[in-house]
């Protein structure tokens, strides 16, 4: 029986991602998580039926629970399967009491989640098996915005790449985890990002910081707040001056003037994508 069916039968029940020993509740194992029922809300007959029909699965469930935590963090044995999986990492803005229910509901919105759990008070992981249904960044953002209205929980989400089961999966996860820790606080609440969103900075930052040429260029160029915003906006708009001007709330001719002035002062034309890329990398890395 899944969590939706149990919730329909027992509206006061709650879904949590981890097992906790309790004398006041019945704990029903689910495919991903546990359903908690307060015994005070049940009749003696209901307690007996639930215990006999549903809870006898618990020892087996506990033994296998969070296999993916052991795989990702404790060098656990990899499953022998041709299937592909991706790791979705979440950073909650604050630790809340209803976070387990939030994570359970979030997981239920995907087609095939094989595991989900909290790593600490505000960091969670969902392991999603690849199916014919693909959830984009926009889809996932819609999910967390919907859940925010219900649970009042905000989160930043990093979506990993689908990987086949191999030791490469663990190596890729370790790097994704590093990227997640580096950049999750750089995004706004309810933002969803992927490797390609931060790859340019992540892959080039150290090389640029170690380059005397790039350091000299940065130190001899006036990168004030207005110029930095102009460069970032032009980059986001792929060099399109008209859309950049709209985003900067300025007239197109005014932006043209500022670009020409910058070119006169530095010899760098931000109308040229190569020069724009160079400046964008500079302001990201130094």
From TrEMBL:
InterPro entries: CdaR-like_regulators, Homeodomain-like_sf, PucR_C-HTH_dom, PucR_C-HTH_sf. It comes from the Bacteria. Residues 233-281 form the PucR C-terminal helix-turn-helix domain. This is PucR C-terminal helix-turn-helix domain-containing protein. It comes from Vagococcus martis.
């Amino acid at each position: 029986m899944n969590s939706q069916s149990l919730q329909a039968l027992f509206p006061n029940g709650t879904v949590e991602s981890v097992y906790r020993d309790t004398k006041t509740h019945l704990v029903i194992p689910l495919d991903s998580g546990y359903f908690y029922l307060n015994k005070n809300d049940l009749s003696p007959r209901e307690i007996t039926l639930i215990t006999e029909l549903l809870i006898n699965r618990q020892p087996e469930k506990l033994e296998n629970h969070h296999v993916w935590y052991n795989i990702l963090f404790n060098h656990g044995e990899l499953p022998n399967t041709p299937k592909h999986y991706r790791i979705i990492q979440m950073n909650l803005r604050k630790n809340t009491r209803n976070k387990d229910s939030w994570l359970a509901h979030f997981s239920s919105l995907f087609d095939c989640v094989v595991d989900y759990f909290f790593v600490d008070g505000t960091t969670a992981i969902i392991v999603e098996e690849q199916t014919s249904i693909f959830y984009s960044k926009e889809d996932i953002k819609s999910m967390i915005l919907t859940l925010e209205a219900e649970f009042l929980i905000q989160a930043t989400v990093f979506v990993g790449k689908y990987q086949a089961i191999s030791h490469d999966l663990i190596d890729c996860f370790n790097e994704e985890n590093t990227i997640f820790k580096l950049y999750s606080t750089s995004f706004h609440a309810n933002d969803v990002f992927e490797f390609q969103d931060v790859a340019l900075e992540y892959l080039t930052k150290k090389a640029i910081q170690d380059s005397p040429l790039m350091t000299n260029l940065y130190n001899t160029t006036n990168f004030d707040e207005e110029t930095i915003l102009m460069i970032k906006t032009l980059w986001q708009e792929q060099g399109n001056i008209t859309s950049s001007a709209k985003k900067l709330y300025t007239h197109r001719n005014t932006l043209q003037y500022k670009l020409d002035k910058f070119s006169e002062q530095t010899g760098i034309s931000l109308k040229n994508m190569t020069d724009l890329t160079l400046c964008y990398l500079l302001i990201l890395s130094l």
